[in-house]
Amino acid sequence: MIKKFDKKDEESGSGSNPFQHLEKSAVLQEARIFNETPINPRRCLHILTKIIYLLNQGEHFGTMEATEAFFAMTRLFQSNDQTLRRMCYLTIKEMANISEDVIIVTSSLTKDMTGKEDVYRGPAIRALCRITDTTMLQAIERYMKQAIVDKVPSVSSSALVSSLHMVKMSYDVVKRWVNEAQEAASSDNIMVQYHALGLLYHLRKNDRLAVSKMLNKFTKSGLKSPFAYCMLIRIASKLLEETEAGHDSPLFDFIESCLRNKHEMVVYEAASAIVHMPNCTARELAPAVSVLQLFCSSPKAALRYAAVRTLNKVAMKHPSAVTACNLDLENLITDSNRSIATLAITTLLKTGSESSVDRLMKQISSFVSEISDEFKVVVVQAISALCQKYPRKHSVMMNFLSNMLRDDGGFEYKRAIVDCIISIIEENPESKETGLAHLCEFIEDCEHTVLATKILHLLGKEGPRTPSPSKYIRFIFNRVVLESEAVRAAAVSALAKFGAQNDDLLPSVLVLMQRCMMDSDDEVRDRATFYMNVLQQKQKALNAAYIFNGENTHCAPSLNLRALVELTQKPFDMKSVPLANTPITEQKTEFAPVATSKLPEKPGPTRQDIYQEQLAAIPEFQGLGSLFKTSEAVQLTEAETEYVVRCVKHTFARHMVFQFDCTNTLNDQLLQKVMVQMEPSEAYEVLHYVPAANLPYSQPGSCYSLVRLPEDDPTAVSCTFSCTLKYLVKDCDPNTGEPDDDGYDDEYVLEDLEVTVADHIQKVLKPNFAAAWDEVGDDFEKEETFALASVRTLDEAVGNIISFLGMQPCERSDKVPENKNSHILFLAGVFRGGHDVLVRSRLALADGVTMQVTVRSSDETVVDIILASVG
Amino acid sequence: MDTVTLEPSLYTVKAVLILDNDGERLYAKYYDGTYPSVKEQKAFERNIFSKTHRTDSEIALLEGLTVVYKSNIDLFFYVIGSSHENELMLMAVLNCLFDSLSQMLRRNVERRALLENMEGLFLAVDEIVDGGVILESDPQQVVHRVALRGEDVPYSEQTVTQVLQSAKEQIKWSLLR
Fold first, then answer.
1. ipTM over the 0.85 cut-off
2. Which A residues 141-180 touch B at CB under 8 Å?
3. What are the residue ranges of helices labelled H in A751-847?
4. Whole-structure pTM over 0.90, yes or no?
5. What are the transmembrane regions (chain A) (predicted)?
6. pLDDT tens digits along A301-357
7. Per the domain annotation, does B99 fall within a domain?
8. In this structure, is residue B175 part of a structural domain?
9. Long-range contacts at B40-44 (CB < 8 A, ≥ 24 apart)
10. Is residue B69 situated within a structural domain?
11. Which chain B positions have a beta carbon within 8 Å of A590's beta carbon?
């Protein structure tokens, strides 16, 4: 039934909005008629509608005026007009946060919630719970319990949903209603079932056993509500993930059985749950994929969309599983919903063959302007993945990307494109020049500072080494003229790199630099002056140190801190600053399909900083100096033994500290005075043991050993320690953890611990290896040739060398181009004590791999050590 | 690939919107803090409208959210949920909203009729979604619960008891003053 407004509303012209020119003050004025007697329900209703409409439009109500209107409204409870009463409930809910003293309607609402009018009861409960706080809740607890098990579905649902909202606020009270919720779960009404299940789960979700029991019960008894089924599937898959149960578990069977449910919603939920499970095999995926395939030809757009989106995810991990759907996906390319078409194409790009790439790309470009940024990012990511798979197609991709770069789009989208182009440039040297040209064109008109600086940095790095570096100068200098401070500063740094590397460009760069020295911004001027002076010296070593490799090798936050501390005590030594672990950014292609609004991670304290602090707290380890390097943890026991021990090696200038993280997995034992006894094979001397006092069941504890490195023989960098875990055992009660009074000594043999040359070297990335090579000079250069007989491929040799020396590969030389018989690997690092060390290793593939190693360092011993350890 | 398993929860709907064919808000209800201020909400609505008003394609992904929508004559209905949400659940909400209104407005789902029945719309949405939880998905039930009654019956047609009742009320109130 509908209700017409007064005639005069209709006369106000067709298509006009009767609410359009509402004035808040006028409406509040009108609200005075709430106080008139008798109440005119129709007019009051209209005014309440206006108030809610205004609130809905986002109109701001002050506390005073809201409270006044609210109190006037409470009088309307005297009318028995149904719609008016319902609108009162809505007003209460809308105003609950802006008006004061809303609790005065509690008794009216309580009356309605327990009254005879079923139409009032549900909404009254919801309004009441909206204004109730924890203390008040106890007063209405009895009514809530009754309402949850009420036979009228709307009442029961309202009570359950309101309880769910209140779990956040008053968990302890709502928890007491579990039995009622349980009873409601067996209701015949599908929505009540769903709401009861949701509430039960929320109350029990921290108790895995209870959740598991509940699942068991409901999966057996079967529910009627498709919503409840979806909820069950989600609970089941979460439980599967948490317990890491295998896929032979009954829960997995339940999810799989839901693929045959008669509701599409449930079938889709189940398929999606299976697809999202980690470590699913292709065979387990097959049934899910085949229902998704069916959905692809559904007349409902939402279902097609859901299906393609999920298939798209499958394609990232198991492209082969999706190939069966290729035909269906082809049909979706022309779908009128562009989102579906895009997803279909990107999925096909992942699963299709190289030959189909050109055709698919052409198809995307026909409608790329019509889709939203989110999907454009998906397209770019698909292209990026494709470039890695089919490097030969890079020219097609590059063209396409440059066209996309010219289109309008948000920051996320542009960043995705720029990242993608950069990764192509890095993977394919042939594409470098075209790529740089596209990027140059982009920064000519780029509103995003971050992207502009990123590209300028790249130009500075790659540009000077191209055949004609001069053509980039123009683009870079344009930035100095036109852009904001940050971009100008980046442009100056890029210019300096051109000047340092190309002698014929140097005079012109110096002229440009001179102009930059008159910039209005401090940072730009400083940089220009600095680079100007460095460049005028015309010394290769200076250039290398301050222009190419001067940035980012020392981690700034701890540098500042340390500098402050040490300046006050003793002369500051650059070598005592820990080197930043170069984060190796890998352009992997497993993006989340839509990564919007993700903030970049803030640089927290590094792992090494944390260890440094922990160690500094132990008195025995004071006076060791600053921590030079911390290794990855090494397991010294097999998995699932009585005691689990892993070791982290901390290297200091003259000492090493071994940190043993031990876990006791026996619940009837308490270990005390736990330490690891070490027997070195070389001239290493164990100075101290710091035992762990107590090691109760499943609580990890650490003990330490301090070892002095042999000083008379600096070349002894590798050593093997045989380790034994020694401790005092006290038997204890598994339940209470109460130990017996006396115990006995026992020991447990651990695996041997190796210290290798890699533990003495910290990785350092030299962005320009050649310059660094010249800087270190050939004072202590040594060269030797080795034959690696057991190695069969260059890739394998490169991998072995890197992991053996623990040094940072530079110039992307860790990637061996395909079909080559020789390769040069550049490695850089800093040796314990702060000496730079560089390794150039020429590899040739014959029968085995022949390797010619050249080592340079600022210290002769280091060179000897490296060569000795390789041999 | 994001392996974040969805935390099982009844909170499904992030927002319900109804815009007119100029993209102006007729109704908007946001159930969580995704767009806390009116300014952000309106910006989001503008974005949604610009991306959807020309195509009739039912579903889209915008600002990391799944948007299911439907247009009729000069009205645009939107239901918005997380991008991990089951799209069909959101669709069920949208369909329920549209069908309920369609019945209440006697199949006359257009801007003018809707504006003349705003209270019906407010009550219907309140019965379909409560604080982000799907409360009811059956349009019959929703229409039944909203239970808008007909025109006020003129005095001439009221029964004697009704007249007496209202007279009693009036007297009671005049006494209470």
1. no
2. 154, 157-158, 161-162, 164-165
3. 769-776, 794-805
4. no
5. none
6. 999 999 999 998 888 778 888 888 888 888 888 888 888 888 888 888 887 777 777
7. yes
8. no
9. B41/A58, B42/A58
10. yes
11. 1
